[in-house]
C-alpha cells in the first residue's frame, strides 16, 4: 500500500485530492499535514505567494495582507500578530511545505487524515456526487480484473463514491481515500449526494465611477511640460480622467522617478477632471523589473513610493503600465504587486487601474481575472496590433479590438473594463532594396522581401496632410473597420491604415454594445479637434 500511495520517507503522507492520488506526497509532522507550495498554489489556492528570495509567505485578503516567515508559528494579518499551534511554513531540502490547516483557513477545501498508511483525503470540488453502498463484502482492486491486486477488503454497506461505471467493473473511492475497482454486481443502489462546505469566499469591493469614463493619456517627459495642461485640454470635450505619464521605476531598489505637478492636478480638478498618475517600467532600461517585483522588500517599497506620491499630489488614481514582462522571470510577483498596491490604494481612496495587452497565451500570467478582484479597472490597450518592427498592417483593426474585448470579458466584468484606443496611425514605408544590397541567394527564397520596411507613428492631422500632399484617396476596408490608403513617392511605397472618426466610431460602438466602463485614448496631441464630437456621442459627457 505504501507504493500505491507513493510513500517513501517515514514522514510522507499521501495526498488524495478530489478522488485522485497525487504522485507527490505531503509531509506528516507532529500530527500536522504539510503540502508542497506548488501543489497548494496549483491545486488549492493560487493566491498564496511564496517569496523564495526572502523566505516569506504572503496571502492577500480583500482588505489585508497575511505575512508568515518560514519556520514560524506566528503570522501577521495587517499589523495584528496572530499565532497557530503548529509551524506554518517548513523548508525541507529546498522544498517549501505549507500547513494544510493554515491553507484551509483561506481556502474552500476540507481534509481528513487516515493512518495505515498515512493519507489525507482532500476535497476541493463541491456539488453533486454519485454514491452507493457495497452490496456484499468484496474486494476493491487496483484495476478492473480478477487478477488485479486487492487494495482493500470492503465490508457490506460500506459507502463508495462512484467515479466511473464500466460494463463489468466500477471505479470507486472509499470514504478513507482508497481508490480502485469492484465488480458491478457488488454495487448497491446509486444515489446522488450533495457535498457542501460552509466556507465563505472573500468579497471584493471596488471604487466604481457612476459615469462613463472618458480617459486620455498625456505623455509628459519633463516637469516643464506640465505647464501646458491648459493648452492640451483646450479643445477637448468630455474628458473626465487624464493619465499623465509622471512616474516610472528608476532603480532596482524600488525608487520611482517623479515628474508630477500639484498645479497640474489643481487645474484638472478645477475643470472636473480626475488625475490618475501613470506608473511605468519602460523608461529606465537599466532597471530589472523582475528583480524588484520578486523581492518582497523592494516590491513593497515600490508600493509605498507610489502611494506617497499619490497622497503628496492629491491624485485621484494610479494607472499602472508595466509592460514587456517575462513570465519566467516574474512569475506570480507581478500579480502580487497589484494585490499589494490595491490594498494601499483602497486605504487611501485612490482608484487603481491596470493597463493590459489584449489577451494572448504569452500574457496569461498577467492574470486579468485576479487583477479584476483587486484593481478597480482593467484597461485594454486595444492598439499596437502592428508596431515598429512588425509586419505592416493596422494599429487597431476592428477585429483585433473586438476579439480583445471579447477575450477580456471572459475574465473581467464589463463594468471594470476601459477600452484603450489609438489617436495615432502608422505610415508604413516600403523602400526598394538597392542593387548592391541584394543577395541573389536570399532573393531566390520564397519569403524574400524586395524592400526595407519602416514605419512612423503620427497623429490624425499629419496623416490627412500627407495623403492630401500625395494625392492619395482613402478607401473603406470593411475587414479592418477603417479607411486605407497608399501612394508612391520617390520610388517608396507608403501604406496607411487610417485612424480617424470613422474607425474610432467603430471602436466606440464596441465599448457601448458591451456596456464597458469607458474608453481611453493614446495620446493627447495626436487627435484632431473634431474627433471629440464623435467621442461624446458615445460617452454622453
Can you tell me about this structure?
There is one protein chain. This protein starts with 11 loop residues before the first strand and ends with a helix. Strand 21 (about 215-220), helix 3 (about 230-235) and strand 22 form a beta-alpha-beta unit. Strands 1, 2, 3, 4, 10, 11, 12 and 13 form an eight-stranded mixed β-sheet that branches. Strands 21-22-25-26-27-28-29-35 form an eight-stranded parallel barrel, surrounded by five helices. It has a five-stranded antiparallel β-sheet with strand order 5-6-7-8-9. The model has no long low-confidence stretch (mean pLDDT about 95). It folds into three domains: about 10-125, Copper Amine Oxidase, Chain A, domain 1; about 125-195, Roll (SH3 type barrels); about 215-425 and about 500-540, Glycosidases (TIM Barrel), CATH 3.20.20.80. The chain has about 550 residues and is of the alpha/beta class. It is built from 14 helices and 35 strands.
Number of strands: 35
Strand content: 25-35%
CATH topology group of the largest domain: TIM Barrel
CATH class label of the largest domain: Alpha Beta
What coarse outline follows from CA principal-axis ratios?
elongated
Number of helices: 14
Biggest sheet descriptor: 8 strands, mixed
Radius of gyration equals: 30 Å
What is the number of independent domains?
A: 3
CATH architecture of the largest domain: Alpha-Beta Barrel
Distance between the termini: 70 Å
CATH superfamily of the largest domain: Glycosidases
Helix content: 10-25%
- What structural class do you assign from the helix and strand content? alpha/beta
Overall pLDDT confidence:
97
Low-confidence stretches: none
Amino acid at each position: 500500500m505504501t507504493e500505491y500511495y507513493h510513500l517513501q520517507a517515514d514522514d510522507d503522507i499521501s495526498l488524495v485530492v478530489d478522488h485522485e492520488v497525487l504522485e507527490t506526497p505531503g509531509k506528516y509532522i507532529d500530527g500536522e499535514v504539510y503540502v508542497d507550495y506548488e501543489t497548494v498554489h496549483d491545486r488549492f489556492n493560487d493566491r498564496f505567494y511564496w517569496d523564495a528570495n526572502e523566505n516569506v509567505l504572503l496571502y492577500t485578503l480583500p482588505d489585508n495582507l497575511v505575512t508568515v516567515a518560514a519556520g514560524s508559528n506566528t503570522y501577521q494579518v495587517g499589523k495584528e500578530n496572530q499565532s497557530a499551534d503548529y509551524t506554518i511554513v517548513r523548508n525541507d531540502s529546498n522544498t517549501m511545505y505549507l500547513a494544510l490547516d493554515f491553507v484551509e483557513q483561506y481556502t474552500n477545501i476540507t481534509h481528513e487524515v487516515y493512518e495505515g498508511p498515512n493519507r489525507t483525503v482532500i476535497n476541493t470540488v463541491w456539488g453533486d456526487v454519485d454514491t452507493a453502498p457495497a452490496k456484499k463484502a468484496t474486494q476493491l482492486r487496483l484495476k478492473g480484473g480478477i487478477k488485479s491486486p486487492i487494495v482493500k477488503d470492503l465490508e457490506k454497506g460500506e459507502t463508495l463514491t462512484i467515479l466511473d461505471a464500466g460494463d463489468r467493473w466500477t471505479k470507486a473511492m472509499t470514504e478513507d481515500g482508497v481508490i480502485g475497482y469492484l465488480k458491478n454486481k457488488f454495487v448497491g443502489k446509486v444515489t446522488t449526494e450533495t457535498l457542501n462546505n460552509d466556507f465563505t469566499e472573500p468579497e471584493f469591493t471596488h471604487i466604481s465611477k457612476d459615469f462613463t469614463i472618458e480617459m486620455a493619456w498625456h505623455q509628459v517627459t519633463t516637469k516643464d511640460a506640465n505647464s501646458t495642461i491648459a493648452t492640451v485640454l483646450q479643445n477637448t470635450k468630455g474628458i473626465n480622467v487624464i493619465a499623465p505619464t509622471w512616474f516610472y521605476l528608476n532603480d532596482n531598489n524600488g525608487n520611482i522617478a517623479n515628474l508630477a505637478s500639484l498645479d497640474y492636478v489643481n487645474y484638472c480638478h478645477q475643470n472636473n477632471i480626475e488625475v490618475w498618475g501613470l506608473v511605468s517600467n519602460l523608461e529606465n532600461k537599466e532597471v530589472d523589473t523582475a528583480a524588484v517585483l520578486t523581492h518582497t522588500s523592494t516590491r513593497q517599497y515600490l508600493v509605498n513610493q507610489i502611494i506617497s506620491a499619490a497622497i503628496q499630489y492629491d491624485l485621484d488614481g494610479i494607472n499602472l503600465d508595466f509592460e514587456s514582462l517575462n513570465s519566467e522571470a516574474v512569475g506570480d510577483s507581478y500579480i502580487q504587486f497589484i494585490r499589494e498596491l490595491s490594498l494601499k490604494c483602497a486605504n487611501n481612496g485612490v482608484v487603481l487601474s491596470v493597463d493590459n495587452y489584449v489577451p494572448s497565451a504569452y500574457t496569461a500570467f498577467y492574470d486579468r481575472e485576479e487583477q479584476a478582484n483587486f484593481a478597480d479597472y482593467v484597461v485594454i490597450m486595444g492598439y499596437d496590433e502592428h508596431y515598429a518592427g512588425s509586419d505592416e498592417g493596422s494599429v487597431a483593426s476592428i477585429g483585433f479590438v473586438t476579439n480583445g474585448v471579447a477575450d477580456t470579458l471572459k475574465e473581467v466584468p464589463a463594468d471594470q473594463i476601459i477600452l484603450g484606443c489609438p489617436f495615432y496611425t502608422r505610415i508604413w514605408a516600403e523602400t526598394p532594396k538597392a542593387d548592391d544590397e541584394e543577395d541573389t541567394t536570399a532573393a531566390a527564397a520564397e519569403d524574400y522581401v524586395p524592400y526595407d520596411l519602416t514605419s512612423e507613428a503620427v497623429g490624425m492631422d499629419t496623416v490627412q496632410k500627407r495623403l492630401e500632399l500625395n494625392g492619395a484617396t482613402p478607401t473603406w476596408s470593411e475587414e479592418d473597420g477603417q479607411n486605407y490608403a497608399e501612394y508612391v513617392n520617390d520610388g517608396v511605397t507608403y501604406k496607411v491604415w487610417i485612424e480617424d472618426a470613422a474607425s474610432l466610431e467603430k471602436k466606440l460602438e464596441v465599448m457601448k454594445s458591451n456596456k464597458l466602463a469607458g474608453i481611453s485614448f493614446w495620446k493627447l496631441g495626436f487627435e484632431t479637434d473634431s474627433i471629440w464630437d464623435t467621442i461624446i456621442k458615445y460617452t454622453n459627457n
